[in-house]
Design goal:
Helices cover about 25% and strands about 35% of the residues. It is of the alpha+beta class. The protein has a 6-stranded antiparallel beta barrel with strand order 3-4-5-10-7-6. It has a 4-stranded antiparallel beta sheet with strand order 2-11-13-12. A 3-stranded mixed beta sheet has the order 16-15-23, covered by helices on one side.
Length: about 375
């Protein structure tokens, strides 16, 4: 009796958990809040301290010019004519790029990636000199400097070389200090605007309905298939962060167009769950053409006059598999469609041709995308 009661209670608890848990996607995973975005930064700099693996100054002129300008800015008098004769192999010209996160404050640090643009063999052991990082508007938002982490090596001589990973690209963890805040707008005029990463009218409507269900009718409404406008309730006007966090945790049902994506180069086929096929008869047979060539040598009899002749001989063989005509009933699910097509015994590349033919026949209800 106790065992029966325990089983009933456990079943009821398990069913309650499944009923209360939502399998929809979180809003923060399918939509982005306008005004909260990252910005790309880029800069040109020099890496020094390389073990004779840097740029060749005779071939890479911009590295030589950058090194000359750097020395002049440090107060070192350099004769341009004599400088051209200097051989330096421990310096490399690099491009430095980073991503400035939203709401980043001056004084905080971000990671930077450094990549060689000259003919340097390796950046291992190098140190990046102070490099301003600019945004798309040409203004400096961060300054990068520090030792590089490569995770690779490249050694060798004239006859042999050993290399692991990619030695001309490195990274500096926390190597850039933010100097300026990027402009941005957040909750302007008491409203928020979310942009769906994949435009869809049904998803936009579901998101708006979910927000209105939690915070009241009129809080959110879709402006188009991508943008949802949200009016911040008065109770959250002084605590906008909490309101945004609560919206991001809401789960909604997403929708998308029925698509079949095929890639003939790799033989990859991806079908969406809403793809449907009308009743159609499919027959697919493989045709193989095999051509073999060989030399047929003809020699004269012993002590007889004549020449040895090599004549090519061509053999052509045509192999055609028997095509099986199969009726594919209208699929009610993606599994039924897959089972029906697999029953034909076609390979992934054959299925690509079958899908294209079914689409032309008008029996596929969905979009066919060929990569």
């Amino acid at each position: 009796m106790k065992k029966t009661v325990f089983t009933i209670c456990f079943s009821f608890l398990l069913s309650s958990l499944f009923c209360s848990f939502s399998w929809g996607a979180r809003i923060k995973d399918i939509a982005e809040l306008n005004g909260v975005r990252s910005n790309q930064l880029i800069g040109y700099g020099l890496v020094t301290g390389l073990a004779s693996t840097g740029d060749d100054l005779k071939k890479v002129l911009f590295t030589r010019q950058a090194l000359y300008n750097m020395l002049v800015r440090q107060g070192i008098t350099v004769n341009p004519t004599e400088f051209e004769k200097i051989k330096v192999k421990n310096v490399a010209a690099v491009m430095v790029n980073a991503t400035l996160p939203p709401f980043a404050k001056p004084g905080s640090t971000i990671d930077v990636q450094v990549s060689s643009i000259g003919d340097a063999n390796s950046l291992a052991g190098g140190n990046l000199l102070m490099t301003p990082l600019k945004g798309a508007d040409g203004k400096v938002y961060a300054v990068a400097q520090g030792p590089l982490t490569i995770g690779a090596f490249s050694f060798g001589g004239k006859a042999a070389k050993a290399q692991k990973n990619h030695p001309t690209v490195g990274r500096i963890s926390g190597g850039a200090i933010i100097e300026k805040v990027a402009p941005g707008k957040f909750a302007k005029d008491g409203t928020l605007r979310y942009s769906l990463r994949t435009a869809d009218f049904t998803t936009a409507s579901n998101m708006s309905n979910k927000i209105n269900e939690k915070y009241g009718v009129g809080t959110a409404f879709p402006e188009d298939s991508t943008t949802i406008k949200v009016i911040i309730p008065e109770v959250f006007l002084e605590n906008k962060v909490q309101f945004v966090a609560s919206i991001e945790r809401l789960r909604i049902d997403t929708d998308a167009n029925a698509r079949v994506v095929v890639n003939e180069r790799t033989g990859t086929i991806v079908m969406g769950q809403d793809v449907r096929l009308s009743t159609v008869a499919v027959s697919h047979g493989n045709l193989s053409l095999v051509i073999r060539e060989s030399l047929d040598v003809t020699q004269p009899n012993p002590l007889a006059g004549g020449n040895t002749i090599a004549a090519p001989e061509t053999q052509i063989e045509i192999i055609e598999d028997d095509g099986q005509l199969m009726v594919v009933e209208e699929g009610v699910s993606i599994g039924a469609v897959a089972d029906a097509l697999n029953a034909i015994g076609a390979t992934p590349r054959d299925l690509i041709a079958i899908f294209q033919a079914i689409k032309v026949a008008g029996a596929m209800h969905g979009e066919l995308i060929v990569l």
